[in-house]
């Protein structure tokens, strides 16, 4: 068994966390990741209701036992922090506060008995979250699906490991035991995985998202803001999102079109237009496998690979 700060602190057996993918990671996915030995996070997006969160939390606990975690976008809490209160009402074990300064919220999460983890994309981000008092950080690289930064996972991970005493996880491009083994061998305590789980039947979202992911290779993604603009999602400009290329990105990415033009051309239920956020590990996802099998296989392969050096 791979033992790290993450497994000891959270009481899990595999140092993997299911990424809190907004619109994809609900209670079923989180519960299956947890039941397999990792910790699944529910993506608490700004448009989710308290009723939806309650339903997802109940599902996650019924499947995965007592462990529960949520992921929040810190920048959206700055306008309305009611979502944090709704999350803390479910007594989660972990809350991730990412994409912004978590300082106004860390004490509230700690007071509720939860561990605070923040994804970071630069060393400047690291200093901000260290000052806020978080318990661990995730070095999230440019390869990651969804919203992310502009530095590759491996360079960022090395920089962060050499620059902090906090426990460090990695995210971005990790979809096999080889990736997890590399992170642990480098000194990390575990990894977030998202794209590796996107074809699993437990994910929320349209069926075409799974089909398009299985048809994609690792070169079939684009780092873009066109989907945020088309859907009037007010993400800060420093974070674009990595998504699978489709006819919408081929037509509009890099064109500088205004939000209304993009919104008029966007149709979420069209497989050639609708967004499928996914990372550069897309080429490693080859079938619709249960999330628990994915997590167990990543853990077993990593343990086998690292065991060669003992």
From TrEMBL:
Lineage of the species this protein comes from: Bacteria, Bacillati, Actinomycetota, Actinomycetes, Mycobacteriales
UniProt keyword annotations, A-Z: Flavoprotein, FMN, Lyase, Monooxygenase, Oxidoreductase
Superkingdom in the source lineage: Bacteria
Gene3D superfamilies tied to this protein: Aldolase class I
Record GO terms (molecular function): lyase activity; monooxygenase activity
EC annotation from Swiss-Prot or TrEMBL: 1.13.12.-
Pfam families: NMO
The protein's name: Nitronate monooxygenase
């Amino acid at each position: 068994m791979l033992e790290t700060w993450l497994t000891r602190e959270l009481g899990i057996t595999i140092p993997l966390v299911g990424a809190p993918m907004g619109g994809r990671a609900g209670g079923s996915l989180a519960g299956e990741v947890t039941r397999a030995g990792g910790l699944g996070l529910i993506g608490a997006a700004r448009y989710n209701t308290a009723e939806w969160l309650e339903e997802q939390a109940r599902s996650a606990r019924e499947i995965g036992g007592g462990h529960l975690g949520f992921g929040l976008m810190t920048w959206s809490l700055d306008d309305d922090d009611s979502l944090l209160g709704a999350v803390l009402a479910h007594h989660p074990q972990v809350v991730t506060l990412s994409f912004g300064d978590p300082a106004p919220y860390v004490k509230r999460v700690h007071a509720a008995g939860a561990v605070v983890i923040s994804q970071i994309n630069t060393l400047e981000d690291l200093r901000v979250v260290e000052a806020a008092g978080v318990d661990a950080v995730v070095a999230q690289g440019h390869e990651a699906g969804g919203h992310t930064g502009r530095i590759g996972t491996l360079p960022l991970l090395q920089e962060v490991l050499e620059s902090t005493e906090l426990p460090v996880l990695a995210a971005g491009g990790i979809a096999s035991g080889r990736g997890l083994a590399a992170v642990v061998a480098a000194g990390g305590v575990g990894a977030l995985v998202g794209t590796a789980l996107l074809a699993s039947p437990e994910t929320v979202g349209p069926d075409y998202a799974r089909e398009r992911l299985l048809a994609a290779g690792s070169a079939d993604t684009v780092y873009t803001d066109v989907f945020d603009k088309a859907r009037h999602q007010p993400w800060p400009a420093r974070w674009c999102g990595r998504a699978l290329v489709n006819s919408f990105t081929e037509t509009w990415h890099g064109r500088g079109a205004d939000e209304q033009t993009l919104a008029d051309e966007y149709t979420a239920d069209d497989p050639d237009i609708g967004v499928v956020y996914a990372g550069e590990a897309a080429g490693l996802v080859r079938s619709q496998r249960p999330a628990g099998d994915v997590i167990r296989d990543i853990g077993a392969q990593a343990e086998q690979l690292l065991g060669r050096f003992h």
